[in-house]
Amino acid sequence: xxxxxxxxIPQQLSTRLIVNxxxxxxxxxxxxxxxxxxxxxYRLRQLPLINGLxxxxxxxxxxxxxxxxAQGLLExxxxxxxxxxxxxxxxxxxxxxxxDCANExxxxxxxxxxxLLAKVEWHALNVxxxxxxxxxxxxxxxxxxxxxxxxxxxxxxxxxxxxxVFFGVTALKKWPKYLHPIVWRFVPEVRKVRDQIEEAVRxxxxxxxxxxxxGKSPTSKATYSDAIQWANELANGRPxxxxxxxxxxxxxxxxxxxxxxxxxxxxxxxxxxxxxxLREELVTVLKEEGMTKAGLFKLKLMDSFLKESQxxxxxALLMMRRMVxxxxxxxNGVFLPRGTQIGIPTNLHFDRNAYSDPEKFDGYRYVKMAxxxxxxxxxxxxxxxxxHMGFGHGKHAxxxxxxxxxxxKVALCHILMKYDFKLAEGSKPTVLKMGWVLSSDPMAQLMVxxxxxxxxxxxxR
Length: 461
Hints:
This protein has 2 domains: 1-43; 123-460, CATH 1.10.630.10. It has 14 helices and 12 strands.
């Protein structure tokens, strides 16, 4: 009897917890969520909704339309309104503003981003998978130093973490937002992310503890120059999670850099006339400067080619994503109530007022801008403007773009010097479109062979 009674206690407590605590909180959260959404929808009613639904249509239809036809929605939107319009995305309703608003909102504190993250014979290889491994190693060397950058477990985590986070977020989106604080613990995809975080802690924490101990030792002469050390110095004794910090770096840096470098290789295969001029520039600069920051800066043609490749294929159709923190009326009369999500499309990448012959790929385009005093400051790969938002624009432009630019250049220097490459037979890379996101082809293959008679020592000067 007593045993049976004791066995029932956890079940009784669980039932009471659900009835008396979880359900009321969930109900309140649902009411607040629906109320704020209805109010925001009402305050934005003056802006046309491009993929609106009929009274008996499911919201899933609008989300599917967005995921597979975002470009078409942008085109339809600007036909209806040149100032602003609304799009129902897979996550929330977003107001798309005219590119003319880019400079107006770029540094305005009322718009927040943070609230909205060796063979010599020809052989075939998958471009993106190979570049992903290269970028993971390069990034890990800077982020983690020599102690972990070659650790197979860490390299696996850095490559898989971003993908697993994406699947975790996608799985969580199937549940109402007011239930997220409860159900995340039971979603397998989210659990997988948590397991990876725990594994990252097991790998990184001993390194951090070792360095802290060395710092306290009066006889230690150990010095380090990597993100682990920079974070420790910046924290200055304040608590922080080094594993989550490193995973955040990986999330932001590895797949985005991989995507652009892969696209650059596809573009070099499409326009092979640039390969020899790039190699000639590379040899000249390496002889003068070596593989240094100053040397990378002098690679003007390479810088221009990278920027032109990004102009043709930025990372997304919609950039400068922001959350409106207070009611705002823009200079063109568009009213944006607090809580609105907004963004600026990359339409000006192909605007004839911004570029001559914008539909033509010109690897020298930004080299030639050096002769125009009005455009000279915008010619660099890392420079941002409403006409080129590959890295965003304004105070929330990608803070890691300087690191990414140098990382891509270092990798491309090695590829150009060491290898010949061309598209594999029948391989035609196509840009994948999923909602706002534009992704380089993950399945395309290159034929690659090691170059002979090349002075590779130049790469190590």
